[in-house]
Write a structure and sequence with these properties.
The chain is an all-alpha fold. The protein is about 75% helix and about 0% strand. The chain has six helices and no strands. The longest helix has about 45 residues. The radius of gyration is 19 Å and the shape is globular.
Length: about 220
């Protein structure tokens, strides 16, 4: 295999991590363009994908909502790429978590392409797919790698998977637990997103373990 291909493969976990963590950076920057009118507790994340036109709706609009919508799409695409990579190419995951990841990725893309102010039903469906299946992916991936990687990262993934599902359940039933509607939504969304980042680390570890096992078998056969 050419050296540049090997180098790209080594950098893939970094690319996937950056592609997802950019969401938090963009969220912070776009929230700032609301000039103090955006609340992480009282506002939904999706509100940032809608042009802000002041408290009364008649101020000059901030066009940075396009950045937020793009961030949703990039996150969803990262999920889709990872699903293909980990199942078809590296083959480190069984079908179930891969399907969960792909569905969550589709949900993220839909959220970005269908803003809540113009296509609410479609947007809501996309958000639901992302929140539920993103957490299911994290949870099932942690359980899948548990026999080989029962370390801190696996425990964190398990915790985030459960927290994400609990957060979504509370959000659905309007139990904000004192965090506000935006706060409880973020419990679900942030858990699903950070869970993916942890799973990228787990997949890198798992690939390393399997490569080491292959090398040991080869050395034993050649001895």
């Amino acid at each position: 295999m050419p050296s540049h291909v090997l180098e790209t493969s080594k950098r893939t976990p970094l690319y996937l991590t950056v592609a997802v963590l950019q969401f938090f950076v963009v969220e912070f920057l776009v929230a700032g363009t609301w000039r103090g009118h955006y609340s992480y507790s009282a506002n939904f994340i999706s509100d940032l994908g809608v042009p802000f036109c002041g408290a009364d709706g008649n101020a000059p609009c901030s066009k940075t909502s396009l950045l937020m919508d793009a961030a949703f799409v990039v996150t969803g695409l990262a999920y889709m790429v990872a699903a293909v990579l980990w199942y078809r190419i590296d083959r480190v995951l069984p079908p179930a978590p891969v399907v969960f990841l792909a569905v969550a990725g589709i949900g993220g893309i839909v959220v970005g392409l269908a803003p809540s102010n113009t296509h609410w039903e479609v947007h809501s469906l996309g958000a639901t797919l992302f929140l539920i299946f993103g957490s299911l992916f994290t949870l099932t991936t942690a359980l899948t790698v548990w026999p080989q990687l029962s370390g801190p990262a696996t425990y964190v993934a398990l915790a985030l998977g459960v927290l994400g599902l609990v957060g979504y359940f509370c959000f659905t039933y309007s139990w904000d637990l004192g965090l506000g509607v935006g706060g409880i939504e973020r419990v679900a969304a942030y858990s699903a997103t950070l869970g993916f980042v942890v799973c990228v680390h787990l997949m890198t570890q798992l690939q390393s373990v399997r490569r080491s096992a292959v090398v040991r078998v080869g050395d034993s056969a050649g001895a």
